[in-house]
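Sequence only, no structure available. Ideas?
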Amino acid sequence: MVTNVEDKVDSFNNRYKWIDVLKFLGIFAIYLGHCGEVSGKLYKFVFLYHVPLFFFVSGFFALNNMNMNIREYILKKFRQLIIPYMCFALINIVSFAILENYDISDILPIIKSYALGIRNTLRMGSLWFIPCIFIVNIIYFIINKIFKNKYIICIIILMLFIATQTLLSNNPLEEPSWFMNIDSAMYYILYYALGNILFEKIKSFRFKELTLRRKGVFVVITIVMFIFTAVTYFMGISAITDFLCNKYNFFNYLYSKNIKVIHPIYLVMSALIIIYINILVAYGLRNIRLFQTIGSNTLVLCGIENVIKIYINTTIIVLGSYINQINPLTCVIYTGISIWVANYIVENIIKRYFVVLTGK
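Reply:
I predicted one. Tokens follow.
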């Protein structure tokens, strides 16, 4: 799953190569998902895991700054995330104002929506992730500062997650409504915490060092998870629960009576299984430099996604042609082109002249 010591860290940029490739897979899934339902089965499939994947990966190094006090940490994350968020918001507002010939009365509500940062209300939807991960970072840091016992920390995280599904008037997965996505952060912090907890196990895993029996167990588990992922892709997220409900009356009774608790847990388990498969794929592709580079730029790629797609589409129209996404394959190709163009701009323009957008 991860590399040997000499492969584990890329000597060129001192980063874990497979993590950057994992982030590449995540940003590709996000760009692809935003193509809409024309992307076919891929549309619903990628939405099962691409956001959880990024929270999971973000948790890998969550406790690297525990020597800071709370104020220092908040200021650092504000510089890394919120300042780029505000810049991305401005870029998107200007681009759409020109594209759609906005009046000032059109712009003011959009500015307000970015100030609030609530998911599903932003004109450029992918930006919601940035204030949300900011809140997740702060909450998790404060919890770990106050409580030193890992079991207490786990209980608090679980309570936050359960509260979003049972106590809040609006489920943040369906109707997020809190400032800066605090309600969504309460849900997604579970993935963040799991990433933090599991990272040491993941990065130290050595398949060659396992006993023959453990190798067999690992292979069987991986095959089962791959089958689950394939079934979920081809038949949908509810295929397995529907089968169990139809096959076993007890399960049907248990599931229907406790759906508010069981279904969210099932969604989390499903996302983690697909993330596991993505980790294996990322490890296999870890030496592809382009994927590493794209993965290292995901913050900016998230922020400029809509703008890049606007200018690609507009440029093609100016040249006398048009974009015709007629099937899932065309969506995959369009996604690849969009990410390549966006990454080229990041590497050759943004990193040279607009470093503030990178959070540095």
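Confidence is low (pLDDT under 50) at residues 1-14.
Hope that gets you unstuck.
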